[in-house]
Amino acid sequence: MKKSAASAAFDAANHVLLFCIAALCVSPFLFVVSASVSPMNDVLTRKFFIYPTHVDFSTYRYLLSSVTLVRSIGVSFLITVVGTILNVAATMLTAYPLSKKRLRGRGAVQFLVVFTMLFSGGMIPTYLIVNALGLIDSLWALWLPGLISAFNMILLRNFFQQLSPELEEAAIIDGCNDIVVLARIYFPLSLPSIATFALFYAVGHWNSYFSAILYLNDQNKWPIQVWLRQIVILSQGGFSDTVSVSEMGYVPPQNISFAVIVFATVPILLVYPFLQKYFTKGLMVGSIKG
Amino acid sequence: MDRSATKRSPWKSVSRDRLLYLMLIPGVLFFLVFRYGPMFGLITAFKDFTPMLGMLRSPWVGLKHFERFFSDPGFLTLLRNTVVLALYNIAFFFPLPIILALMLNEVSSLAYKRVVQSIIYMPHFVSWVVVAGISYTLLSNQGGAINEMIIARGGEAVNFLGSPRWFRPLIVFQSIWKESGWGTIIFLAALSGVDIQLYEAAIMDGANRARQLWHITLPAIKSTIVILFILRIGNFLDTGFEQIFLMLNSMNRGVGEVFDTYVYWSAMQSGLFSYATAVGFFKSVVSLVLVVLTNWLARKAGEEGVY
Amino acid sequence: MKRFTVSRRFLSVLLALLAAVCAGVGGTGEKAGAPAATGEQFTLTMQQELFSPQPPDLSIRNNEVMKRIADFTGTVINVNFVPTSEYTNKTNVLIASNNLPMVIAFNGGQMKDNTIVTGLKNGAFWPIGNLLPQYGKLVDFITQPVFDNARLEGVNYGVPRLRVVPRNGMFYRKDWADKLKIAPPKTLEELTAMAKAFTENDPDGNGQKDTWGMEMAYASTGNNGWNGVRTIATALGAPNAWGYENGKMVPDFTHPGYMAALDFYRNLYAQGWMNKDFAVLTGNKRYDVFCQGKAGMIFGVMDDAPNQERNLKTVVPTAALTVAPAIVNPAGGPLRASATAGFNGQILFNKTGKGAIAGEADLKKALRFYDMMCTPEMQDLMLFGIEGVHYKKDAAGKRIMEKIADGNTKLSTSMGDLGQILPQPPFVEKDDDNAVTKEVFAAFKARVKDSIMDPSTSLTSTTFTEVGKELDQIIMDANVKYILGELNKDGYQKAIATWRARGGDKVLAEYGALYEKYSKK
Questions:
Q1: Is the N or the C terminus of chain B less surrounded, counting Cβ atoms within 10 Å?
Q2: Three-class SS string for C182-222?
Q3: Where are the domains of chain B?
Q4: C-beta separation of B186 from B224 below 8 A
Q5: Which residues of C387-415 are buried (b: 16+ CB within 10 A; e: fewer)?
Q6: What percent of chain C has pLDDT over 70?
C-alpha cells in the first residue's frame, strides 16, 4: 500500500500523540509502583518520582503474610469467575431475542429495561428483597442482584443487530433453531463485544466491596477489596478523634497504601491483554462464503 | 414499535418465536425481582421514612420533601452547577474516547496498538481518592509540583485547588485522564467487527485515509455512539459523587456543589433517607424526559435507539 | 467448530464448580467458632465497627482471653465486625430489616443520626437508666456524670464509651524549639512568635528557608473540635461549640474569643507563617505534611503526638515532639480546656427484630455481663492480656508488652477492636511508654478539671438534623474566607446573620428548651 506524504505525516503525529497520552496515563502508576517498594522515609519526602531510589519489599511481605488477605484473594477470584460467567450467559440470553425485530413486544421490554436505568429503589429496598429471598451471607447475594447490567445488555443487543441477517437465514435454512443460532453462530462472531462485556463485568466483581460488606456478615467471605480499602483508610489515619486512646494500636505505614493499589489492580489489569486476542479484526471474513 | 411484523395474529408470532421468549425469561425475572421489586422504595420520597418504622408505617408527607428541595435557597445554584458541569462533560469528555479509539485504529503496528491500549485504560483502576491525592501533590499552592515549576520560572503560584475558575476544568480533566482510555474499549470492540474487505475495496476505488474514515470506520461505530449518547443524556444530572466531593472546599463550593454532593451531606449523613430519595426521584424524572426525547430524535434520524 | 467444543468442556467444569459453590456457601452461614450453648452460659450477639485490617479470631477454642472472659462472666460473645467505611450504611440497613443483633456499638456521629434518634424515641432500644443502680461496678467505672451527659431527653439508653475528656491541644517540634531557644508558648502572642521563628530562623538547620510555623487543615473535617480555631476559642472564653449563657443558648462563633482565634490565624496567613493551602487540606493529610518535617506546630487530639513522632522519626531521626501547655486567657480567669463529652457514642441494647434481647431477664444478664467486665480482673485481662503470652515482667516488675513485627502489641492483634464495645478506661498508661506519651497522659490528667464540654451532646434538635450540615458549612466557609483575608469583620457578621436565618436561631431555641428541661442543674 503506497502511502502519501500526508498519510505518513499523520501517522507520525498520531504515534507521537498516542505516546504522550500513554506516558501521561502510565506515569502515576509508575509512581505508585515505585512508592510501593520504597521505604517509608522516601515516600514521605518524595525522594523519587518514576523509579524508586531504594527498594524495600516490606510492604508486600506485610500484605502477603496476612492470612486474611491471601484468603480473600481466593474469594475474589471465585466471585469474579463465577459471577462473570453468570453475567455473560444471562446478558447474552437477554440481548439475543431483543435484537430480533420480529419479536412482538420487543419495544415495550426494551423500554422497561431502560426505565430501570433511570429509576432505582435504592440500597434499603434491595436489601430487603435479598433478605426475603434468604440470600444473606451467601455469595449468591453478590451474583444475583447485579446479574444483568442494562447498559451492557443494550450495547450487546446493538452489536447483535449489526451482524448480517443473512447469517441467520442461512442457518435457519440448514434447520437450526434460535438457540443453536445463538450458540453456534452469533456467539463466536461477537467474541469482541462479548469479551468486552466479560471484562466490564469481571472488573465490576473484582472491585466490589460495598455489596460484600452489606450482604455478607461472615468476614471470611469478604473479597480482597474490603480489606485493601480498610488498610488504605487506616493508613491515612484520621480516626483519632473517634477511637479511644487505648485502641490506637493499629496504624499501617503510609507506603502500604501504594502496595495495596498495586495488589488490587494488577490481577485485573492482566485480564485485558489476555482478552486482546479476541479483538482482532476480520472475524467476519469467510463466515458468509463458508 | 415492531416495524417488521407482518399482520399475523399475535399468537402465531409468539409461537413462532417461542424459543426467543424462553430465552428472555431469566432476564425478565431478574429485572422484575431485583430492579422493579425494590422500586417500592420510591414511595419513601413521599413519606418521612425511618428504618425503625419501616416503609409502610412511616408517616405520609406528600410533596413536603420536594417543596423543601425546590425552595432551598441554594437550589438554583445547584442546578446551574450540575447542568454546566454536565455540559462541560458532554462537550469535552464524551468525544475523547471516540477520538482515541479512532487514533488507535489508525495505527498499523499491532504491537504498538496493543501496548498503548493496555496502558491507557490503567487510570480507570485508580480510585478517586488517589486521584485527589495526586491532584493535591501536583497542584497545591504549597509545594505542589506544577506550582514549583511556575515559581521557578518567575511566575506566581496558581491556586488550582481553591479557585472557582479552575474547578470545572480540573474535574473534567481528571475524568478525561481516568476514563478516556477505558471508554475506548467499547469502540475498539465495534471497530474490530469491520470487514477488512471494505477497506481493501475502498483503497482500490482510490479513497484516501480521510475518506476511508468517513465512509467505513465512522459508520461502523455510529450506532454505538448514538446509544452511548442517549444513555449519557439519561445520566445528565449525575455528576458522580466521590470525585467532586473530594475536590470541594470552602472556596470553590459556589461552583462545585452539585446535586449528588448536596444529597450526600444534607440527607445521607444525617439519616434523612426520604429527602435523598426525593432528590433522586426528581433527577430520575428529568432523566426519563431527556431519554425519551433523545431517543425519539434518534429514531427520527433513522438510528437505532435504546428502545 | 473447535473453539466451541473446548468451551463446552470448560462450561461443564464450571458447572461442577458452581455446584460446589452452592453447597459450600449457600444460605445463612454459621459463624466460625460459634460455641454450643452449655447450660449456664448466656450468649450475647454483638456488632462492632472494625478498625483493623484483619478480623481477630474471637472463638473460645482459639483465643485464651475470650475463654477466660466466658468462664468468669458466664457469657459467650459473638461479634459481627463491620468495616468502618460502611458502618453507618450497614447499620441503617440492618435496622430497616430488623436484623440487628443484641448489642450494638454506635459512634458519636450515629447518635446524632435521624435514624437512631427516631429509633430511640420509638422504643427500638431498651432504656437502662432504671436498672443501672443494680450494677454498681458499671456505674462507678463509667461514673455518674458521664451517664448524666449521655442521657437523651432524660433517659439513659446505653453504656457510653469512655474517651479522654480534655483531648484537644497542640503539639510542636521540640527539637526546633530547643535549637531556637523558645520557651513553651502559653499565649497567642507567644504562639505567633513561635510560628514566626519557625518560618524565618531556619529551625532544621539546613540553610534554606523551607520551613513554616503552623500546619492547619480546613477542608472536609476541618471544623471539628480539635481544629486550632475552636481549641483556642474555648481557651479564650468562648463556649465549646454551644453554650448556655444568660438564659439562652449561644453558638461559639459569636463570642469575642472565637474572633480572636480567627484573627490569630488571619495574621499567621497574611505573614506567611502557616501553610498556604490550609483551605484545601484535609484533616488526615495535614499529618502527612507535618511528618515530612516542614511544619513545626499542629493542633489536634493530643494523643496523636506519639504516632506522629514515630512517623516523623523515619524522616528526621532527631525529631521530637512535645505537648504545648494550656493556652492562657489574657483576660484572666481559670484555664479552659477544649474537651470532648467524655464519651464517644454508646453501646445500645436492641429491642426489635429477631436478633433482639428478648425480655428484661435477658437485659439484666447482659447488664450483668457489662458489670462484671468492670472488675479489676477483667479490666486487667482486656488491657494487658495474659502474662507470658501478651506481656512479660522485667526485673523491676514492670510489664513489657509483647510486640509483633509491625510494632503493634500481640494483644491488640489478637483482640482487635473488641475493646470498643466493652467498658474501657479513656486511656491506659503502660510502663514502657515513651517521653511524649507520658507528657500526653500528664496533660490529660492535669486538664480534666478545666474541661469545657459541649452541652449539645445530650440534646437533639429537629432543625439541626435537617440543616445542621449546611449551617456548619456556612460558618466553615466564612472562617476560611476570613482567614484568607477575603472577608472582613462585616462580611463575617453577614455570614452569621445568614446562619441565623437559615435555621441557626431555631436550633438555638430548640437546644435551649431541651437544656432547660433536662440538663440545667
A1: N
A2: CCCCCCHHHHHHHHHHHHHCCCCCCCCCCCEEEECCCEHHH
A3: 74-126+181-300
A4: yes
A5: eeebbeeeeeeebebebeeeebbbbbbbb
A6: 91
CA distance B141 to chain C (A): 6
Residue B34 and residue A115: Cβ atoms within 8 Å?
A: no
**pLDDT at position C236 over 90:** yes
pLDDT tops 90 at residue C398: no
CA distance A6 to chain B (A): 10
- Which pLDDT band, with edges at 50, 70 and 90, does C122 fall under? confident
A113 CA: distance to closest CA in chain C (Å): 26
Domain residue spans of chain A: 1-56, 58-284
Distance from CA of A74 to the nearest CA of C (A): 13
Query: Predicted ipTM?
Result: 0.88
Q: Give B-chain residues touching C112 at CB under 8 angstroms.
A: 270
* Surface of B (87-116) touching A: CB under 8 A: 100, 103-104, 106-108, 112, 114-116
Question: Residues of A with CB below 8 A from C164's CB?
Answer: 244-245
Residues A275, A199 contacting (CB under 8 angstroms): yes
Confidence of residue C22 (pLDDT cuts 50, 70, 90): very low
pLDDT at C19 over 70: no
What is the number of alpha carbons within 13 Å of residue C47 lying toward its C-beta?
A: 25
**Residues 115 to 144 of B: which have CB under 8 A from any A CB?**
115-127, 129-130, 134, 137
Q: Which residue has the cell 425503625?
A: B52
Residue pLDDT, tens place only, A33-80:
888 888 877 776 766 667 777 888 888 888 888 888 888 989 999 999
Which of B6, B43, B125 to probe the A interface (max A CBs under 10 A)? B125
Q: Which is more confident, A145 or B133?
A: A145
Q: Which of C352, C113, C105 is nearest to B273 (CA)?
A: C113
pTM reported for the whole predicted model: 0.88
Question: Domain A58-284 carries which CATH code?
Answer: 1.10.3720.10
B43 touches chain A (CB under 8 A): no
